[in-house]
């Protein structure tokens, strides 16, 4: 059973939910969770999300729910969602899925939701982040523990989960979307990673996962330092938030840019792109008397020795 699940007292065992698709990864996780739950002092249930993207998806969800019941999981909850198109089909489906999982966890009072992502999924995520130039934030891949969500299988290969189902006599569903090369991740899985292993040798997936672990350690440490510094440096007022230019200039770029992003995120709930972050940082590192910089939702200007952030909107400018 994954670490981080605390046992409850007799009669008050906490509930965990397995996010179950019916595929081999989540079915192997469901079987392992059902076997280990009582030993860990928790109750185990399952939530199945029907994305309604394929003909017969309701039947697939019902079959997965029955498999969960056969494994002894309870409660078993099927959630039907409508997937939009914001950010592309993969992103929209993911957003709808996580929203449904969060709702199910809240309604059932589950302390954790267990996700069946494997080492292969982690390698694909890191490679996609590298290809997109998304920086260390995406290179660190998926975290095993994000508070609400646990990924107990991140160190386990997909071949292992498939073998687990076969050895246990569990018939897994093979999602046709996993063969649809119109999806970027499928192309990475079927073409890019096999090509890399063919040309560079085996072990590419393990190497990518090691890279993710190292990137996460570094990124988490820098985030921690930035948060500690922000507590001492930030000056908050009704007009916004300010950071001292001298302190920003004295720090390495990685910390300086984290401080800028942290100030904007904490005060205005806006996630800055790298382009916008670097543009703001130029008010510190390349100061030539520039005027205010407007980024989505925020105006930034240098006032003598302070970098000042305030709310910005078209409505305010029109007044």
Automatic annotation (TrEMBL):
Transmembrane segments: none annotated. It is found in: Cytoplasm. Gene3D superfamilies: 1.20.59.20, HUPs (3.40.50.620). GO terms for biological process: tRNA modification. It is an enzyme of class 6 (ligase). ATP binds at residues 21-26. Its main location: cytoplasm. Residues 243-304 form the tRNA(Ile)-lysidine synthase substrate-binding domain. GO terms for molecular function: ATP binding; tRNA(Ile)-lysidine synthase activity. Its EC number is 6.3.4.19. It catalyses: cytidine(34) in tRNA(Ile2) + L-lysine + ATP = lysidine(34) in tRNA(Ile2) + AMP + diphosphate + H(+). One of its GO terms (cellular component) is cytoplasm. SUPFAM superfamilies: Adenine nucleotide alpha hydrolases-like (SSF52402), MesJ substrate recognition domain-like (SSF82829). CDD domains: TilS_N (cd01992). Residues 16-190 form the tRNA(Ile)-lysidine/2-thiocytidine synthase N-terminal domain. Pfam families: ATP_bind_3, TilS. It comes from the Bacteria. Keywords: ATP-binding, Cytoplasm, Ligase, Nucleotide-binding, tRNA processing. The N-terminal region contains the highly conserved SGGXDS motif, predicted to be a P-loop motif involved in ATP binding. Belongs to the tRNA(Ile)-lysidine synthase family. HAMAP family: tRNA_Ile_lys_synt (MF_01161). Ligates lysine onto the cytidine present at position 34 of the AUA codon-specific tRNA(Ile) that contains the anticodon CAU, in an ATP-dependent manner. Cytidine is converted to lysidine, thus changing the amino acid specificity of the tRNA from methionine to isoleucine. This is tRNA(Ile)-lysidine synthase. It comes from Salinibacterium amurskyense.
